[in-house]
TrEMBL record:
<dbReference type="InterPro" id="IPR036412">
    <property type="entry name" value="HAD-like_sf"/>
</dbReference>
<keyword id="KW-0378">Hydrolase</keyword>
<protein>
    <submittedName>
        <fullName>HAD-IA family hydrolase</fullName>
    </submittedName>
</protein>
<dbReference type="InterPro" id="IPR006439">
    <property type="entry name" value="HAD-SF_hydro_IA"/>
</dbReference>
<dbReference type="InterPro" id="IPR023214">
    <property type="entry name" value="HAD_sf"/>
</dbReference>
<dbReference type="Pfam" id="PF00702">
    <property type="entry name" value="Hydrolase"/>
</dbReference>
<dbReference type="GO" id="GO:0016787">
    <property type="term" value="F:hydrolase activity"/>
</dbReference>
């Protein structure tokens, strides 16, 4: 630590998960199932899209979403089922360098938390095989709360759960809308691009050596 938590006024660090700590790409799954590049593009921009998936992050039931999509796009049942049963294949690995930063912050005694847009069943499946989150205190999961970023309510809920004022926490997220929402509520923010840039910001704040 360079000067400790008091120098920066930050006494907790709050991470997003997808595209900050872990890679996430739904095309990775469907590229294994769809050979034709044009069909793959159509499927990922029309059928199983990130916007549609966001409804699951917001707490809608998986069975309901899948049934609706099958009815809307007949003939694609096996692909839509793959979304429901093979979601972990959309997470190919970790963001290079991010897990090391988490471990260094934890070793320094910095309280760590997370706010993630993640559907409840997918989160439980992923969390069970990722020990990094043993280093975290509370993790607010959108699917459990039925509120997703950038809704201001999820940030207010997180601040209550974490027990720190927004002005005393640094929130790290790759999504500009989420960063803007948190900043409007008084959180310190870092718009994540890559681990080296994050490391430099943390060092400038006195949170990492």
């Amino acid at each position: 630590m360079c000067g400790g938590f008091a120098v920066s006024g930050i006494d907790a660090v709050v991470f997003d998960v997808g595209r900050v700590l872990v890679q996430w790409d739904m095309r990775r799954l469907f590229a294994q199932l769809i050979d034709d590049p044009q069909e793959l593009e159509w499927f990922c921009t029309t059928v199983v899209t990130e916007k549609w998936h966001h409804q699951h992050d917001e707490g809608r039931e998986l069975s309901e979403l899948v049934a609706e999509r099958k009815a809307e796009f007949p003939g694609h049942d096996h692909l839509i089922d793959a979304y429901a049963t093979r979601f972990l294949e959309t997470i190919p690995g970790n963001i290079p360098g991010s897990h090391e930063i988490v471990r260094e912050l934890a070793a320094s005694g910095m309280p760590l938390f997370a706010i993630t847009n993640f559907a409840s069943p997918f989160w439980r499946e992923y969390r069970a095989q990722e020990p990094l989150f043993d280093l975290f205190g509370e993790i607010v999961v959108s699917g459990d709360e039925k509120i997703a970023k950038p809704d201001h309510r999820i940030f207010d809920l997180a601040a209550q759960r974490f027990g720190h004022a927004p002005s005393a926490m640094l929130f790290i997220d790759d999504n500009a809308a989420n960063i803007e929402a948190a900043a409007a509520l008084g959180w310190n923010v870092h718009h994540f691009q890559d681990a080296p840039t994050l490391r430099a910001d943390l060092a400038s704040r006195g949170l990492l050596a």
